[in-house]
Structure formats: C-alpha cells, structure tokens
Amino acid sequence: MIIQRVMKCSLPLIVISILLTGFNSSAIAQQRLFSNHYQIQHSQHSSFSHTMAQNQIESKLLAQYSNWKNVKYLFGGTTKKGIDCSAFVQTTYQQQFGIHLPRTTLLQRNIGKKISKDQLQAGDLIFFNIKSGVRHIGIYLGNNQFMHSGCSHGVSISNLDNSYWIKRFAEVRRVLATNREVI
Fold it and tell me: Exactly one of 9, 42, 136, 153 is catalytic; which is it?
C-alpha cells in the first residue's frame, strides 16, 4: 500500500523530471529522483509509526495507572492490598506489555539499555537512590511525569522536576524498543 502511494505521488515528479531534462535524461537520474522521494516518504512513515508506538505505550501505562491509582505502598507487597515500587513496575510490564521483569530494583537496574535523561520516552524505567542501599523505581509517562508506588502516596504520578526526585535521580534504562521488543 505504501509503495502504491509512493508510486502515485512519485509519478508526477518523474514526468516533470523527464520534461525538464528532456527525453535523453538517464534512467539513473530518474531512478535517483524516485529513490529520494521514496526515502522521504519512508522516513515520514517511520516517524509516524514511532509516534503511534509511543502513543500506544502511553495509553497502556495510563490504563495501568488508572487500575492501580491510590493502592497503598507496602514493602514486599505485590497485590492491590499493597504494592512496592519494583512489584508495581514488574506487574505493569507483565500486564501491559507481556514482558517479565525481575522482582527487585537491584535486578531491574541490570536490564535493558542505559540511556541519558534527555532521551526519556514513555515506558523507560527511572531509578533513584533514596538513601544508602535503598533504591526506588518508576516508569516514565512523558512530560516529565512518572508513575510509581511510593511510601507517601502509594501508586501515584510524580514530576521529575520536583526537588526531592532531582536530588535522588540515578539513571534511566530502556527496556521497550519502539516496536516493543525487549532490548
């Protein structure tokens, strides 16, 4: 279907190219014009697919949040009676993406690919160092927001610009690729 659309869009360009350069223009020049136009169309399609994948990830994360909102924090908890941060992340990835993550933040910190904070995308795992030996994890939603299960408010959404989180930020890891395969 994309090739048909590209052909439909490219045909006038090829005809114009032939008319402007004369009928003696080489087949290579015509091929190059078509090829360049196809690459532009293809890259626009790829960007659109990437955006769609991010929107789908965001929607799944918000649906999960909606189901778990205000569930209290419970160290070692894994149910709606109480859940800790790593279990919430593990449950979210399993239920929304069919991906099994390790149970603890220590083990979760070893999966995926480490990325810089300025590359954050929905679904990325955000790690914090709360105090010596105590780690925290959340899932990035977009717009500097992340969801997590925290001691104060249970399952909630927080802002990365909050001074509490800024001071404790440790790293970001990407587990979901744009095509939602494990990295």
Answer: 136
Tens digit of pLDDT for each residue in 150-181?
A: 999 999 999 999 999 999 999 999 999 754 44
Domain boundaries, position 166: 69-174
Mark whether 136 is an active-site residue.
Answer: yes
Residue of 42, 50, 85, 151 marked catalytic: 85
For residue range 51-94, list pLDDT tens digits in order: 458 889 999 999 999 999 999 999 999 999 999 999 999 999 99
For the entire predicted model, the pTM comes to 0.71
Please tell me the distance from the alpha carbon of residue 29 to that of residue 173, in angstroms, as a whole number. Answer: 45
Q: Is 45 considered catalytic here?
A: no
61 inside domain:
no
Q: What is the CATH number of the domain that holds 147?
A: 3.90.1720.10
Residues contacting residue 74 through CB under 8 Å, at least 6 positions apart: 81, 82, 83, 84
Please give the torsion angle defined by the CA atoms of residues 147, 77, 87 and 103, in that order, rounded to the nearest 10 degrees. 150
Verify whether residue 148 is a known catalytic residue.
yes
87 within a domain of the structure (yes/no): yes
Q: Is residue 58 part of a domain?
A: no
